[in-house]
Amino acid sequence: SEALEADRKSLMDDKLPHRSGVEVELADCVIRIFDTARALGLDLAGAIVEKNRFNRTRADHKLAARAAGGTTVGIIPGHLVAREAADTDSDELVITDTMCERKRLMEARADGFITLPGGIGTLEELFETWTGGFLGEHDKPVVLLDADGFYQPLLRWFDSLRDDGFVAAAAMDRLQVTGSVADAVTLVTQQ
User: Fold this and answer.
1) Full-prediction pTM beyond 0.70?
2) For an engineered disulfide with 57, which of 2, 13, 18, 37 has Cβ 3.0 to 4.6 Å away?
3) Is residue 118 over pLDDT 70?
4) 96: pLDDT confidence band, cut at 50, 70 and 90?
């Protein structure tokens, strides 16, 4: 969409000569994350899949899904509506009283869970859906989309937790990891 391209151009324009190498590298990384989110939105158009990412990525995949003719559902606690810019263009916007209610509704309505690169909220929701699946609270696929190796340090830590006996091999098997949007969609829709 035009809005997404304007955001992408703005990031590219920020890569001017006065920027440090680290700032340029960060801008490149953010652009790759936006592109991954767009690709995921296009591939998931029409599917109801929980996507719990930081605000810009969330907007990218929802806009892309709508542009491809898909439907989108936003679920957000009332106290975060203004702070996180609720997606008022969603086909359905559900405003809950609490974060716990939001998570319960997302889990109930989701066909599966794909985690994109994100921050602490993303990690918290990844761990919750992964743990819930391992404990038998749901049987939905939990997929970690490791775009551009974003999650490699975390995955190495998971391996060390398993090797040291803190995480069961069966729990590790419950988390499906891929670097490909197409594979993530296949993993979440094959069950």
Assistant:
1) no
2) 37
3) yes
4) very high
What CA dihedral angle connects 27, 67, 75 and 118, to 10 degrees? -20
Phi, psi (rounded to 5 degrees) for 83: -65, -40
DSSP 80: G
Strand partners, 6: none
Look at residue 22 in the predicted model and tell me its pLDDT: 44
42 in helix, strand or coil? helix
Any idea which residue has 């040291």 for tokens? 164
Cα–Cα nearest to 92, from 67, 111, 66, 120 = 66
Q: Which residues pair with 77 in a beta bridge?
A: 96
Quickly tell me which residue has 């749901």 as its tokens.
138
C-alpha distances in Å from residue 45, one per residue of 28, 95, 113, 117, 185: 26, 22, 15, 20, 10
Tokens of 64: 């892309």
Residue 31 CB coordination number (10 Å): 15
Per-residue pLDDT tens digits for 123-176 = 999 999 999 999 999 999 999 999 889 999 999 999 999 999 999 999 999 999
Cβ neighbourhood burial of 54 (10 Å; 0-12, 13-18, 19+) = middle
